[in-house]
Amino acid sequence: MRDDSDLIEAAQAGDRQALDALLRRHYDRVYGICRRMTGNDHDALDAAQDALIAITRGIDRYDGRAAFSTWAYRVTTNACLDELRRRKRRPLPARRNGYTQKAVVGGHKLYLRTGEYEDGTCGEIFLDMHKEGAAFRSLMNCFAIAISLGLQHGVPLEEFVEAFVFTRFEPNGPVKLNDRIKMSTSIIDYIFIRSTF
Fold first, then answer.
1. Is the bond into 171 cis (omega within 30 degrees of 0)?
2. 4-86, CATH topology level
């Protein structure tokens, strides 16, 4: 079995069979990324096809500075983002329901707020933290905005839950002020475990 570097070199020299073997080898990963990002099989198939076309067109520009899988991941992510941009954004109502949950995770206080559509589905999240540095707070706010945009463009909440539950970083530990969740491996883990209730 030829390794990726042999297949890439042959594909860059015009060997269509080598390119086909390379694309087949990486297809499951490409499709998996597309499925997670788009939230459904139909859009994932479209995005995966676009990604494979972009990889085919760009194979000559691949220079080996990063692993092929890393380069293909970036190309695939861009194809998925293009697919998500093609979708229409579902606007939230001007006045919306939601909830605010105060919690303490590993000794760090946070407030999780949501905004909901008329049908009760989540369309946005906000995360306010105290006692954290400005950089971490800003990163959490940007993360919440990214999740909110995904929700408004049709990515199911379940996809985010699957991707982010059990992420592990500080702060983590015991959870206070929540009767159902007693431990969390990170703030992100807490947000998405909380969203399943």
1. yes
2. Rna Polymerase Sigma Factor; Chain: A (1.10.1740)
